[in-house]
């Protein structure tokens, strides 16, 4: 099977997710700075989630460059990832509307954790399909960021119970860790 349809479908879903999130940003009923203040938590949650969607789009794009053939398992694993990502607009809106309250922060972290797990499953299926000497397997190596992220998400989930602000900082730090472009795949493809 050709990977073009999988990439096009994934890109389309991610574009729709961003569109849904931006539609949650409502225009204030005033024309001064004070009217924007209540929207600040909503905008912060949007900014964080937009960053996460961008990170997933970027990393998915790089990962798909290593794929030579698509299997049914890859299609289902990709849908599994898109399912968790498609819930981000809901948890983002809930978190922002409730000014980063504990339970919305917990659910946001759980959603990020499940999306991360789904990404690792997709990555593992690609490696299993293409073999341990594949471009992706070589590029990932020990994958320290991939192993640290779920631990940090769990820490953020636990912290949300007593400090939603700390929880948000942890989610932000994970995003910053991944925001720096990962050159491993580009390097392996260029040198390989």
TrEMBL record:
Tell me where it resides. Membrane
Q: Which GO terms describe its molecular function?
A: potassium channel activity; proton channel activity
Q: Which residues cross the membrane?
A: 6-27, 39-57, 77-94, 106-127, 151-180
Parts forming coiled coils: none
Question: What PANTHER family does the entry give?
Answer: ENDOSOMAL/LYSOSOMAL POTASSIUM CHANNEL TMEM175 (PTHR31462), ENDOSOMAL_LYSOSOMAL PROTON CHANNEL TMEM175 (PTHR31462:SF5)
Show the catalytic activity: K(+)(in) = K(+)(out)
This one is known as DUF1211 domain-containing protein
Give the primary localization class.
membrane
Protein family per UniProt: Belongs to the TMEM175 family.
**Pfam families xref list:** TMEM175
GO terms under cellular component? membrane
Q: How does it sit in the membrane?
A: Multi-pass membrane protein
Q: Which UniProt keywords apply?
A: Ion channel, Ion transport, Membrane, Potassium, Potassium channel, Potassium transport, Transmembrane, Transmembrane helix, Transport
